[in-house]
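Chapter summary example.
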Amino acid sequence: MRSSQSDRVGGGTARRVVIVFARLPQLGRVKSRLAAALGEAAALAIYRELLDDTLARVAGCASVERWLCVTGEDPEGQGEVLARSHGYRLTRQIDGDLGARMAASLREALAGGSRALLLGCDCPGIDARVLEQAFEVLARHDLVFVPTEDGGYALVGARVDAPAVFQTIAWGGSSVMAQTRARLAMLGLSWRELPTLWDVDEPQDWARVLDARRAS
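The structure predicted for these 216 residues follows.
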């Protein structure tokens, strides 16, 4: 049975929240590896496209609250425009490393017995079907992950507040998922991993996106 129907808290259906983690699209502040190869303007254009596409794909998941959780200075109110145009609540990331920021956002979303998923904006393979699968996992497990080919993960979901899962992880390296598995086992938490996907960090990754579009 689907978690939206069977995973109940206090006699009611559990609230479901999907958080998109994003950096505000600003020249020279996004996709540094793409910028090094293609230039800052091209990297910004690609990032904007990836972000818009992610927000649209998440919006295809029914019966969820959608949060856009941003970092970066925003004097022109870009975040509010993005959030409003796609039907999201705008929130901001706290200061700290990636783990601290993710843990804080998940804690806020989990209040009141919710189930929460958090994802970045550069994994084209995450769509409404994957999000539903992740919520279904949370009916039986504490956490769920979508690993990526580079050794990290593109999505984490939780039904428990477990900030220790995100502590002392070497973020940005090729062993993020391996370190996370070890931490989960040490903490005695249950988790499941969905099929491995890939994200867009290098020019060849963007070429892969374009190839997939041409083939569809």
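To summarize the output: Residues 14-209 form a domain with the Spore Coat Polysaccharide Biosynthesis Protein SpsA; Chain A fold (CATH 3.90.550.10).
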